[in-house]
Amino acid sequence: MPWHTSRTLSAGETDRPCCCSTATERTGAILSTRWARSPSTTPSTPSTPVGTGSPFTMARFAQDLLDFMDEQKLERAHLLGFSDGGNIALTFALLHPERVDRLILNGANLAPSGVKPQIQIPIVLGYAAASLFARLSPKAKHNAEILGLMVKEPRIPAEALRKLYIPTLVIVGTRDMIRDSHTLLIAGSLPNGRLEMIVGDHFIAAKNPDEFNEAVAAFLADTRSDRI
């Protein structure tokens, strides 16, 4: 599950991590030796269940994350999100920058066009097929809702990132499904962005956990508030 560490302001310099999406258990174990874990990964009551007519959106998931942090009494957090989890983390940071201490984006994108064609085209075709049969099949409707998120979102203008001063690690694989030029755009648009490329594909956290974990831990250590 993707990880974010959270800082409770009333606890001074005590960092308290929790989860935001999907990374490996090994990543969780490594980070847990350095930061405490929050006991839950999502709000206890999501804003709208799948299939109730309210489509998936990054803003909706960002609201779920805000509800979770409020429920857990987490005033600020270090967010780590993988893939769409990264898109949610970035959306959340843009909407609620005061709630984010540091940000780690693993394989995130600003728009569907940031995904390489050989990956995105099958998703678009799958969405079209699922949408065609959505009225006849609950499973097709469910698939259309999930694939629709990847076809329609995110829609984050690069210009918006220039106002985001949160220290941010942009971390991807050397053979990632996200276009290299798109990753460079994200990292280059962030005033306090840092780019890290690890040998591997989109799933570097699962397939190359040692290097991934060390890169994340080094970033968190280097950007501690008492060192900036």
Q: Would you kindly provide a written description of the structure presented here, covering whatever features stand out?
A:
This protein is of the alpha/beta class and 228 residues long. The chain has a single domain (3-111, 154-222), classed as Alpha/Beta hydrolase fold, catalytic domain (Rossmann fold, 3-Layer(aba) Sandwich), CATH 3.40.50. It has 9 helices and 6 strands; from the N terminus they run ββααβαβαααβαβαα. Strands 2-1-3-4-5-6 form a 6-stranded mixed beta sheet, with helices on both faces. A hairpin with a 7-residue loop joins β1 and β2 (15-19). α1 (25-32) packs parallel to α9 and α2 packs across α3 (84-95). The two termini are 28 Å apart. Mean pLDDT is 83; it is low at 1-19, 28-33 and 35-46.
Give a topology summary.
Layout: E1 3-7, E2 15-19, H1 25-32, H2 58-71, E3 76-82, H3 84-95, E4 100-106, H4 117-132, H5 138-152, H6 158-161, E5 168-173, H7 180-189, E6 193-198, H8 204-207, H9 209-222
Parallel strand pairs: 3-4, 4-5, 5-6
Antiparallel strand pairs: 1-2, 1-3
Helix pairs in contact: 1-9, 2-3, 4-5
How is this structure best summarized?
With 228 residues, the chain is of the alpha/beta class. It has helices spanning 25-32, 58-71, 84-95, 117-132, 138-152, 158-161, 180-189, 204-207, 209-222, and strands at residues 3-7, 15-19, 76-82, 100-106, 168-173, 193-198. It has a single domain (3-111, 154-222), classed as Rossmann fold (3-Layer(aba) Sandwich).
Give descriptors for this structure.
228 residues, Rossmann fold, 6-stranded mixed β-sheet, 9 helices
Distance between the termini: 28 Å
Number of strand segments: 6
The general outline is globular
Instruction: Profile the largest sheet.
Output: 6 strands, mixed
Q: Could you please say which CATH topology applies here?
A: Rossmann fold
The proportion of strand residues reads: 15-25%
Can you tell me the CATH architecture? 3-Layer(aba) Sandwich
As laid out across the biggest beta sheet, the strand order is 2-1-3-4-5-6
Count of DSSP-assigned helices: 9
Q: Whole-number radius of gyration?
A: 17 Å
CATH class annotation: Alpha Beta
Structural class given helices, strands, pairing?
alpha/beta
Number of domains: 1
H/E series, N to C?
EEHHEHEHHHEHEHH
Average pLDDT figure? 83
CATH H-level superfamily title = Alpha/Beta hydrolase fold, catalytic domain
Residue windows where pLDDT falls under 50 for at least 5 positions:
1-19, 28-33, 35-46
Question: Helix content range of the residues, please?
Answer: 40-55%
